[in-house]
């Protein structure tokens, strides 16, 4: 292992993390909801399937839908103050489809993702979440190692 | 202000802050996330500091939430009940981690990138929703 000092951005990372923590705190203490993105996506959808439009628009789900709107609008608010930093994807459409399918199945099976088990679960000192985080981190490390070094 | 307007304003502010935090931390860029996951190459530890900063604030928030019956807006505290530590928790983490490593996206950053108009994020999010549907339809635990 060697640290990529040229791309390491400790201050921005820490500031970004504090903002994410603040967002999770606000959603938790303000609205009583866990800021786990996989759950926030799945929950209104399950309510729609189980109880129809009434379920989707119930008070509990409305907060989640509004939270999702905020997440989608964040780049637009960002652009009011600074240029969008852009993003780079190093896989083609097939990789995106495969990655998306695996992420979708995995987060539903384990009931959480980087935010639900990662940020919120670790903040709750949940042992289950810690286990899940260790597994997905190890799997992520192994996958990128295989793609960049193992199979290359 | 009506109670529901305050609820919606808080939820919108939470979602916005969450997204802005991801952008500030560089996490809306899959290349940055993969730089963290490339532990055995040129490793960029930034994601660990994003997670650490978020958990530092989260620890305080969850400790306070544990002592509350209701949220500020009067909404019920919806804390997930203690779940099972089982094969599904670990297999789900494994599948998620592999997908995360392949694409460099996880759900939050993918939605932010989708909001920014990224086609790659659109493909990823559509596939993620399909994966969620597939799980719930065919792989959900028998009730």
Describe this structure in words.
The complex is a heterodimer of chains A (152) and B (143). Chain A has 152 residues and is mainly alpha-helical. Chain A folds into 2 domains: 16-82, no CATH class; 93-152. Chain A has 6 helices and 1 strand. The longest helix of chain A has 24 residues, at 127-150. With 143 residues, chain B is mainly α. The longest helix of chain B has 22 residues, at 3-24. In chain B, 56% of the residues are buried. The chains are: A mainly alpha (152), B mainly alpha (143). Chains A and B meet through strand 1, helix 1, helix 2, helix 3 and helix 4 of A and helix 1, helix 2, strand 1, helix 3 and helix 4 of B.
Jot down its keywords:
heterodimer, A: 152 residues, mainly alpha, 77% helix, 1% strand, B: 143 residues, globular
Reported for the largest beta sheet of chain B, the result is: none
Rg of chain B over CA atoms, rounded to whole Å, is: 18 Å
Low-confidence stretches of chain A: none
The Cα radius of gyration of chain A reads 18 Å
Report the biggest beta sheet of chain A as strand number plus sense, adding barrel if it closes.
none
Oligomer: heterodimer
Number of helices of chain B: 6
* First-last Cα distance of chain B: 42 Å
Helix-strand sequence of chain A: EHHHHHH
Largest interface: A-B, 115 and 119 residues
Number of beta-strand segments of chain B: 1
